[in-house]
Structure prediction request, 123 residues.
Amino acid sequence: VQLVESGGGLVRPGGSLRLSCEAPGFTLDYYAIAWFRQAPGKEREGVSCISNNDGSQYYLDSAKGRFTISRDNAENTVYLQMNSLKPEDTAIYYCATDLSTYCSPRIDEYDHWGQGTQVTVSS
Prediction:
């Protein structure tokens, strides 16, 4: 499974970005898809996840109220809309799946990853 992220970039504090996760030749809507991020010198952390079994969504506490995960099955894409961005959101953002229908809290269960997209929040 090849996952491809896009949509990163440089944005000022308070700005917005929408990240996309696509999988050419693979149907994403069967599975839970998660977004992770890794800042320089820090461990990779889970940001958000959307399940397939009941559509449940999960968010990192610091992302609640600012980020929204969604999926467009017709486009075979999962999005992460990020609003009110802060400098501490600066990181490489990855989408991932463990090919299950629910969101696992364990990062080591995710065995399919994209290459990442850089998000930089700076004035």
